[in-house]
Design a protein that fits this description.
single chain, five-stranded mixed sheet, 13 strands
């Protein structure tokens, strides 16, 4: 999924409305509109949710689809017109362009995520069905409890990169940012912002700590040990590991400020924890992962 588009709306080949929500929090008062070129040039109201629960995966027949005996439906357009919709087939339904709207404050925060990253989950050879995670090298089997925390962290991270307060702290500390050439290899705040705002695809996994490795990152690979995924909300050390590995993802080595240096070890980790209350997923209580019986003991 892409963090800038955590709500996915589509029509299945069987004609079912499919709504999938990659979010640790529920969203309220969500109106789903669709543009059907064969019917009208305005978006039409197609579904309304009082609540879309966290991590919802919802299927329901779409009312405007053609049923036995034909018949027409009435939909309201975005300008308030009542539009008569003839029964349409699934081929036309699959081409509907959907849009979701809500006045929910949480939803409004999600809409401020401009530079989304694509997030996937990867076992890297680990086995989540085994009590010890079936370690494979420095990886172990990631479980759904960890995947949900991956979603929480990257929603917050991609929201954070466009916060004015975040941009300010980078500019105020620009003289402390340096690249792979060491302290004399200066990196501008603008360069860092562009690297963070670049769309990337991340294969997220769970790091096995038995080899004294807490995190792994580089290219499209990103991982942290279980404690990091559980405690990123409040632990500056967990966030230090997270941002250290994000530094590697951005192409920086251990000679830079972005791994063993102020960007990861002081600026970003503290900013994330200190500004958690401003972020979309502002509490560990939504997931309560520490109490989840499926974390590794």
């Amino acid at each position: 999924f892409n963090t800038a588009r955590p709500l996915q709306v589509s029509v299945t080949p069987e004609g079912l409305l499919h709504v999938r929500f990659y979010s640790p929090r529920e969203a309220r008062n969500v109106l789903i509109r669709g543009l059907i070129p064969e019917v009208d040039n305005e978006y039409l109201d197609l579904a309304y949710f009082d609540v879309i629960p966290a991590f919802a995966d919802f299927y329901e027949p779409l009312a405007i689809l053609e049923k036995e005996g034909g018949g027409k439906k009435i939909c309201r357009s975005e300008s308030g017109r009542l539009v008569e919709v003839p029964g349409i087939g699934t081929s036309a339904a699959e081409r509907i362009m959907f849009r979701a709207e809500s006045d929910d404050p949480y939803w409004q925060k999600l809409q401020k995520i401009v530079h989304g990253w694509n997030i996937r989950f990867e076992l890297f050879g680990g086995d989540p069905t085994k009590p010890d995670g079936g370690p494979s090298g420095n990886w172990m089997g990631i479980r759904p409890v960890h995947c949900r925390e991956v979603v929480a962290f990257f929603i917050n991270f991609t929201y954070m990169i466009d916060m004015p307060e975040h941009e300010q702290i980078l500019r105020e500390n620009e003289d402390r940012l340096y690249g792979n050439g060491g302290v004399e290899d200066k990196v501008s705040a603008e360069t860092v912002l562009s690297q963070m705002r670049q769309e990337r695809t991340i294969n997220a996994g769970l790091v096995y700590p038995g080899n004294s490795v807490m995190g792994l990152g580089g290219g499209s690979t990103f991982g942290a040990w279980q404690g990091g995924w559980l405690d990123h909300y409040t632990s500056t050390y967990s966030c230090e590991v997270m941002f250290h590995e994000l530094g590697h993802v951005m192409g920086y080595s251990h000679n830079s400020a972005f791994t063993y240096g102020p960007w990861a070890q002081e600026l970003m980790n503290r900013f994330y924890v200190d500004h958690l209350d401003m972020m979309p997923v502002d509490s560990p209580d939504y997931l309560s992962s520490r109490q989840n019986p499926n974390i590794y003991k």
